[in-house]
Amino acid sequence: MDMQTTVSRTTRQVVLLSMGDSRNTSGVTRFLAMYLRGMAAYPEYEVLNVRFDQHPDRIFVRRHVYPTHTELVIPLPPGVEELVRHRYWMRAYNDAVLPYVLPYLRPGCLLHLHTLNVIDLALLIRRRVPCRIVSHLHCIPWKSHFNGRRERFNRLYDGVYNGGMDAGELRQSLQGVSFEMAYYHEADRVVCVTACAADFLRRYMDVPAERITVIPNGIEDAGTPPAERPPHEGPVRLLFVGVLSESKGIGTVLRALQRLMREGRAVELYVCGRCPEEKRVRFGRAHPGLPVRLLGLLSYAELTALYRSCDIGVIASLQEQCSYAALEMMMHGLPVVTTLVDGLGELFRDGVDALGVGTRFSPVLGLSADVEQMARQIGRLIDDAALRRRLGQEARRTFERRYTLPAMTARIAELYREMEFPLKTD
Questions:
Q1: pLDDT tens, 284-337?
Q2: Phi-psi category of residue 208: left, alpha or beta, with phi > 0 → left and psi -120 to 50 → alpha
Q3: 329 lies in a domain?
């Protein structure tokens, strides 16, 4: 077949490209799992999921055919962090794996990218196969410095939100890895999961507005939440879902918990998320006497039981896009106290479907949540069962209007139709 002609088929091929570690669940892996279930409703799209996997047991390329899609798993070499940092070696790796990918691609396919580090491979493919590229931005890259390079994060935050840097210097400093700009500018379309990410691309990355599409994450509906939370004996149960990192605000939640206890309130905090044993031990030593249950990484069924039985959800993130934990709390009608940073301020409306908590910033101390306000908001919900019920019900309605899996996949399918090559028929 002439590679420059369109394909005589009734189905279109979508090729998902991502790089990660299959041992760890990330926002990208959560998205792809939901996407694959949701796109089953669109049989006109044939999905090939190409995953580059960092796993010590992966040494061979493997292909799996599922009812909804085909998956191609390609191992990453040891020391992948060094590979990604150097574009020369990344391109050498791409040259090596390209022959494993090309035989499965059809002219006219759509390459749907989900991590920045696959853009060079996508461009290499585009030189061989007529295709179009969609870059999906699941997070704002510079904000990831919060956990590892706090001083740099503070400087950039001050520049973005307070005008604390020269505009030209700020624009240059916001660009991270060498392939970040290619991810935005070489793609035919960029999908953002929040409006604030779209604003970042327009203002600082010079991406034209007409090439940006905002599609919030959506999740599969697990069923209508109970009209009333089941009564229980003992303390009010707070639920925190996420890793024990500063960017997720676990320190803020613990300090708020201490304030509530000093007020004489009977509360207990359930923490769900990956927690290695050494971190669990350090946590116990650092916070003796706090009523905290570290539950570790739970199955979704176990987590669902907590969403439906706990009294209050607490989200304290200091940088977040379209949070899956937030969507799940919404879906289950759990009343929520949340910081209103980034995408959380788009997901929730203060006083309508959640109670909001403000943040503070100083160039010296950095970004932090208002602990006193968080304790007050949690206290309000503890004292007012009617308010808990109203916020939970309204959160559920917000979920049904905006964040269901069918709503997300319908918007993705619409985007695909906009980007298709003309289709020839026999």
A1: 777 778 899 999 888 889 999 999 999 999 999 999 999 999 999 999 999 999
A2: beta
A3: yes
